[in-house]
Amino acid sequence: MAEAKAAYQETFRQFLERLPEAANIVILCHSDADGLAAGALLFKTLPKLGYLVSVRLIGKGESAWSSNTRELLYESDEEGIIVADLGSREHSIQPGIPLLVIDHHRPQGVAPGAFIISGYGQKPTPTSGLLAHWCGETITSLDSLLWITAVSLIGDIGDKAPFEELAQAKKQWKGTVLRELTSLINAARRSGTGNAIPAFDLLLKAKNPADALSGKYPELEKLRAAREEVTAALNVAKKAAPKFSGKVALIRMHSPCQIHPLIAQIWRTRLKDYIVMGVNTGYRPGYVHFSARCPVSVNLIDFLRANAPGEVDEGYGGGHDQASGGALTYAKWNEFVSKLGFGSEMKVVMGQTK
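Predicted structure:
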């Protein structure tokens, strides 16, 4: 891992060398605990080199690689783009603008001229937040920010993640405190609005995890309310029974909350030999969102690509080899479940999605 870390840090230096002095840099990051931690770490370290840094959270129904994002950035004055925890694609976001991808998912191509720091294939796999931490270490000491890196690791791997940075964070702060903060940070993007700004702001404002949970910041109550909303929705979804076709199990729900990954993970522990999908018809109007989990004997990304319903966009089949998912229009979803061998009971009709 030391050799890989050194290579990541060299790639980071090369990206910075491509930027003009005092460059404007925009960070596009995922809205889960890992992505937010990566964005926060970069936001706190890059200005020490004189860069002007802004952050855009990529949340519900959005993608860093979509035409909408390219259009939003088209007339901006950014001179560098960093994409954190949002995958890697073969096309540029803004051609001619230096691009750095920091990610740990399976790459789906690399944009021309892009710099990529990918943890995919490493054993164990570093999270995007940990990769950002290693990048930041080339600028300054991040000992005081280890708690943010811990949020990344706990959020994606768990509190037993085999990385020294987590062990060091636990020496400074109780594991219960770190787990509680991670739970609240993740709750924001899982809520019905998907608004993760309070979670990101709390990471920026707090001096440490105990400070974040002290109650002095208004964002904390927003995160607690979000978690209550998600918990209530999850309790309803847990009552749904799976439907089977071969070795695929689908669990259907209808909620604006992002609970389908949680349901998939819950049933994955019960249906150990199946590809398990949490299917949400209420997350975004006009789309079916699903999260899938599978045993290590199956490569989920390959499975989804083999069963893709015709042409699909960047919202389908990314992520990890055993944890993937996607979003499909109703028509594409109906085609998809037909290919998997399911009948009309799993198809979606406009106005009859519950």
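Summary: The domain at 238-346 is CATH 3.10.310.40 (Diaminopimelate Epimerase; Chain A, domain 1).
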